[in-house]
């Protein structure tokens, strides 16, 4: 199962489609060559290079830290290529490693934090997403110098990038008033669907700062039902930290005009909050 999950994540980050490729021994020199092939005007050559990059990444993730670090110079060089296809593929190495090798990520990517941050504003949204993901998922927590770049990324036009930035901010500075206020301001500036995406990220990060909790409570009054649904779920995850949401959640649960699905998630949130309050 883990091997299949690795395959699916790799395919998504690399933007590939196809069958599972066997992980043959690889070398950093081959990575340089594959990036060169991606620049070919021949579609067949480019597609083959993409498939080989998938196989390389699969092999790479199974190696020890020292072997993985040997390939980083090639990946970093790929990030500086004018060709967007090369940058996308190079960025995937950073996006996937934090998701699948989180226990030793600080060793694998040691010394690359500033270079990763320098690509937070790449013209390609997939590159930006992969590079922000690399630090948002950093273990045990994102480095402090990523906080300001994360905050800037809250204004990114890509919803995925904004959501990853929110996740990184909550993990990097969960108790910071300024970070919480920046997230609240971002929620105020966006449309309902974009706010729903950010709220889902807040749920995943278990963001329980009082400023954020208050903003989530305010969202319960929104006319966009999917946003209210996601917000109620997020508050339920927070347990006793979301106690101030109980009166509004009860009002929603008693509203005869809401649909059964929303009523169910609201009641579930209420149960979670009340149960958490009863725990010693």
Give the uncertain stretches in residue-range form. 1-11, 16-22
The residue fraction in helices comes out at 55-70%
For the terminal residues, how far apart are their CA atoms? 37 Å
Largest sheet: none
Task: Kindly provide the name of the CATH class of the largest domain.
Answer: Mainly Alpha
Q: What's the CATH topology name of the largest domain? A: Leucine-rich Repeat Variant
Number of helices: 16
Q: Which whole number gives the mean pLDDT?
A: 90
Task: Kindly give the count of domains.
Answer: 2
- The run of helices and strands is HHHHHHHHHHHHHHHH
Strand content range = under 5%
**Looking at the structure, what is the overall shape?**
elongated
Radius of gyration: 21 Å
Question: What CATH architecture of the largest domain would you give?
Answer: Alpha Horseshoe
Alpha-beta classification = mainly alpha
Beta strand count: 0
Describe this structure in words.
This protein has about 280 residues and is mainly alpha-helical. The chain has 2 domains: about 1-140, Leucine-rich Repeat Variant, CATH 1.25.10; about 175-280, Leucine-rich Repeat Variant. It is about 70% helix and about 0% strand. The chain is built from 16 helices and no strands. It has helices at about 1-15, 30-40, 45-60, 65-80, 85-100, 105-110, 115, 125-135, 145-155, 160-170, 175-190, 190-205, 210-220, 225-240, 245-255, 260-280. Helix 1 (about 1-15) packs across helix 3. The protein is elongated and about 65 Å long.
